[in-house]
Amino acid sequence: RIAPISLVLAMALLTGVATAQGPHRGGDFLGPMMRDMLDLTDTQQAQIKQIYQNGKTSMQSLWSQERESHEAMLKLITSGAFDAAKAQAIASQESQVHAQLEVAHAQMAAQAYQVLTPEQKTKLNEFLAKREQRMQEHMQNRSQAPSSE
Description:
mainly alpha, single chain, about 150 residues
């Protein structure tokens, strides 16, 4: 079974959209590697692009809120009067907005996934399984590496 976050990451690769990049990102919404790997038809590409265009529009206010929280945290850090309670409140707000963005992005990825044929889904799932395995191996190797301190 593929972890949900892996599916979201793969669909982000498929579409070339990352929530953190916000509404200013333009250009091609389909990552060339995934588009080529899955051999998407022009119709599929158009459908997926439309899914992400619609999602981008609905997520703009969330991106704005996330940016405002980030700016508020930077202002607090550089104010010379750090207040841990204020930092916690800002972090909590940013975390809630980020969670909403993740859910919205997962929803778009799930919609895009439904555009794929069964064969494309199988190919994507295999890619994700291999990617997940490599990631786990990397994390395991990293945790076993001697500290350089």
